[in-house]
Amino acid sequence: MDCGVITSKTVLLLLSLAFWAAAAGLSYVGAYVINTYKSYDNFLQDKYALLPAVIIICVAVVMFIIGLIGCCATFRESRVGLGVFLAIILVIFIAEVSAFVLGFVYREKVKTDVQGTMHLVFEKYDGKNPESAVVDYLQERLHCCGVKNYSDWTTTRWFNSTGNNSVPLSCCRQDMKNCTGHLDQPQELNTRGCAEELESGLQSVISYAMLVILGFAIVKFFGMLSVCVLTCKREDSGYQPLYSGVFA
Question: Is 171 in a helix, a strand, or coil?
Answer without folding.
Answer: helix
